[in-house]
Amino acid sequence: MRSSIHIVDVDRTETWTRYRTGLCDRCMANCCTMPVEVKLPDLVRLELVDPFEAEHEAPKQIAKRLSKAGLIEHFNFKHEIYTLGRRADGDCRFLDAQTRRCTVYDKRPGTCRKHPQVGPRPNHCPYGQRS
């Protein structure tokens, strides 16, 4: 029997699989190894920033605090986009290493909620076997 799982390179979008219903059911969470760009409301929903801080603190100061804590790895000042920090293995900090499931699914960022409709290759997913 042929397996529908194949090796992909998340950085090479031409290796990605066209999204179809049920694809995520057996996925190894490869999308959770890509950098996750978030906005301030996402950080509030994730409870990394409290609403008062979001309203009264400059985004640059928030970025500085989150970066120092290792919660973000980059901040785009021009567009006020934060890139969440990842673990040493490249996985999203909110991905459970054993189950390969999101630990903050109900609070997940907009980027994750909209995947794969938006992203580097819309309607495609870096689905495949984790190497």
Automatic annotation (TrEMBL):
Domain of life: Bacteria
Full protein name: YkgJ family cysteine cluster protein
